Amino acid sequence: MAAACSDDEKPKGDGASKASQAALPAPVPAASLRQVTLPDQPGPLIDTIARQVRTAGTVRADVVSSGTENGGARQQEKISAQVRIGAEPPQAQMTIVDQDSTTEAVVAGGTVYTRVDGEEQAPGKPWVRLSRQDLRNPELAPFSKILTGILDSVDTGLAQISVDSGLQLVRAGRFDKAAATETVDGVPTRRYSGRTPTAELAKTDTAFKAVAQLGGDEVPWTLWVDDKGLPRRFRVDVTTDRGLGSTQDIRYRQWGEPVSVQAPPADKVHTIGT
């Protein structure tokens, strides 16, 4: 039965749209979910996980991404996020840390609010408000490349923490060994290891198309799932024939617990073009 989000789950402040505050099913803590039988084939397993994830409704995730590029230089990025699953438009609050800066982002009501530590967009306004619709404003044409880059970066972060992205990768793959028992952050899980053909992923994801072109035939992955059918960890390793590689390691926690996705105060937000 649908129920309104609790107060700390509704975006507040500047520009919180009605769509972002639409009624969603109430989150269900993992402890209140029934145990499920985990299937031994990727497709049925992912169907089970998807149902449990939707029922839980919220999650916190920590992502560590690293890779070699630019002649072998090692790059690393960390994302911590809280997400309202099933919200349309998405609802999420993220902190993105790379070697150069720390960026906070709030995604609510189809709008992105972002700020970089130590910077102001206007006097007294550390936050900037952006949306894809803003990019249609001809007055912003000189800044379109920069603004598109900001929005693309947030979208990439959302994709990285999205449970759906990982589930589809596993669904298109195969297990390469029997599931094993392993504890993740104190929670007993089943560990599934497998591989997915890069060519299959490239059909819907341009990033994997580039990997395929560089000689990466398969994407190895490992998925840890608890007895409630909820992912606890997901790791993907990509390596190409040219020696380039990347690793993405996601840990999921506090399934079904309250999250706080709030737009920043209006007087702290700068709107591009004003």
UniProtKB/TrEMBL annotation:
It holds the Pfam family LppX_LprAFG. Keywords: Cell membrane, Membrane. InterPro entries: LolA/LolB/LppX (IPR029046), LppX/LprAFG (IPR009830). Transmembrane segments: none annotated. It is found in: Cell envelope. The keyword DNA repair does not apply. Residues 1-32 are annotated as: Disordered. Residues 19-32 have a biased composition (Low complexity). Belongs to the LppX/LprAFG lipoprotein family. This is LppX_LprAFG lipoprotein. It comes from Actinomadura keratinilytica.
